[in-house]
Design brief:
alpha/beta; D-Maltodextrin-Binding Protein, domain 2; 43% helix; 360 residues; ten-stranded mixed sheet; 2 domains; 14 helices
Length: 360
């Protein structure tokens, strides 16, 4: 009996040692390495997702992030972080220049959209207004050219025929964030500038100066603007039409909240896809080996890609996005490119010089 127990104990001990070796090899026996990054606020829900955190921990990383406006990132102490993850390639290029690095990862992207409400979209689709319309598959389209023409004429909501759904005396105006801090505002400037430039990307400073008044006008009359894209979107969810009727946002912000069954995502809230729109290519810039590992995992890890799609981001796996977001259009008919970093930065600096936060 004693010999049998000894043999059994030896087998259990050997199995335990083997399990410990396997556990340690896959990172289970070690504390994960803490990796700190700075991100655009629109990616906050993704990095806070317990499933995302668990997958990173499975890979040996405890990823901790701080959120700021993407164009504001160069004003924070980036030396404290292993990576920066702004919301677009131009914002990432700005950081790369500051840190004198060329390495970057672009694991997912999100088209810019207008978060609005069904009664408002239907009002803008009225004959003679023509700013909104339904696409054949049912999603809403927001005609940027028609909108800018109406905005230049000072169209007000109560001037639209039968405007009982939203009889406001305010101007028909898309609400954005601050251009000096936030990438979503920079992407709005990119679309407006291209249309003002004869539907061509603004390529140099001469063209930039020509379109600058049209870009300025879309910001200076808005009044107070938030510094990150998450702030106006939270107000849109919480306050509805008591906040703003047209909010410039990321598609992923809206879809992620739908998939999370957010109680603020009421049935009257809808997306309108600008035509043209611009793709915000979320680009991670690593500063050390751990930041590089985060970027590589976001590019190659199937579980992280699946979770990104659940949060509304489009990845290289179109099928994963479609499975998670069946109501979203798989492709977009009209997409523009943002200007080069130097041109876009000069454009935003010029807007910031005029914008005083009051809209006067």
């Amino acid at each position: 009996m004693r010999r049998t127990l000894s043999v059994t104990f030896a087998v259990v001990l050997a199995a335990g040692v083997a399990a410990a070796i396997v556990w340690d090899r896959f990172g289970g026996g070690k504390d994960p390495v803490v990796v700190r990054g700075v991100i655009g606020s629109e990616k906050g829900p993704f990095f806070a997702d317990p499933a995302v955190r668990a997958e990173f921990r499975k890979q040996g990383l405890d990823v901790q992030v701080d959120a700021v406006g993407s164009w504001q990132m160069t004003s924070v102490k980036l030396g404290e972080y292993a990576f920066a993850f702004p919301a677009s390639a131009p914002a990432a290029e700005r950081i790369q220049r500051q840190r004198e690095t060329t390495k970057a990862y672009a694991p997912f992207y999100s088209p810019m959209v207008v978060a609005t409400f069904t009664p408002v979209a239907e009002l803008l689709a009225r004959p003679g207004t023509g700013i909104a319309r339904r696409a054949p598959d049912g999603h809403w389209v927001f005609d940027m050219k028609a909108y800018l023409a109406a905005s230049a004429k000072g169209l007000r909501w109560n001037q639209i025929p039968d405007s009982g759904a939203y009889p406001s005396p305010n101007a028909v105006l898309v609400s954005t964030t601050q251009p000096r801090d936030s990438n979503s505002a920079a992407m709005y400037a990119a679309v407006v500038s291209e249309l003002a430039n004869g539907e061509a990307v603004v390529a140099d400073d001469a063209q930039r100066q020509k379109v600058q008044p049209a870009v300025d006008a879309q910001f200076v009359k808005q009044g107070y603007l938030e510094r990150t894209s998450e702030q106006p979107f939270e107000s849109y969810l919480a306050n509805g039409l008591n906040y703003k009727p047209l909010v410039w946002a990321y598609e992923a912000q809206f879809l992620g909240r739908v998939n999370a069954a957010d109680p603020g995502m009421t049935a009257d809230k809808v997306l309108a896809y600008p035509e043209p729109t611009v793709l915000s290519k979320h680009t991670l810039v690593p500063f050390d080996a751990n930041g590089d590992k985060v970027g590589n995992l976001l590019m190659t890890n199937p579980e992280l890609a699946r979770l990104a799609a659940r949060h509304g981001f489009r990845t290289a796996d179109a099928r994963a996005f479609a499975a998670a977001n069946p109501a979203a259009p798989p492709t977009l008919a009209s997409v523009v490119d943002p200007p080069a970093y130097q041109v876009l930065q000069a454009m935003l600096d010029a807007v910031a010089a005029r914008y005083d936060g009051t809209g006067k």
